[in-house]
Amino acid sequence: MYYTSVSATQASTVSSPARRNTRAAADMVKEMTGMNVAVLQYPTEMVNNTPQRMLHVIAMALDMSPEAYKMKTRVRNVVELRFIATLFLRQYFPALTLQQIAAYFGGQDHSSVINGLSRAYNLIYIQDAEFLKKYNAVLKSVTSWLRKEA
Prior knowledge:
Layout: E1 2-6, H1 8-11, H2 16-33, E2 39-43, H3 51-61, H4 76-92, H5 98-103, H6 110-125, H7 129-149
Parallel strand pairs: 1-2
Helix pairs in contact: 3-4, 3-7, 4-6
């Protein structure tokens, strides 16, 4: 599947030129290879929503300081803050690379982000009550924030 991106200012008015370009790209691939492809358009940026603002919303939802993301500690509250933030960054900002996400957490590397995602999914899977309480609080705050920004 092939993707094309549209800037946030174009996204609200994905008009004829953008649609023509995506159709032309799909047609060109079909002519050259004989394959039918779906070309998706999606905004590559959100006008007022940034990863930094989302991280702030997440920290506030858990009554923690945004500086806690960069702390070099393994205290459960701080670690779970990073786990939850990583989940939400991956979901709402899919264009961010693992290295870019790691940079928000004090210069960790991409393997730390992968490990954090894995552990967060595991905590959700095993229904860890404390983690799910935090996750649901953040989900509520982020959803509310995104509605206000839209």
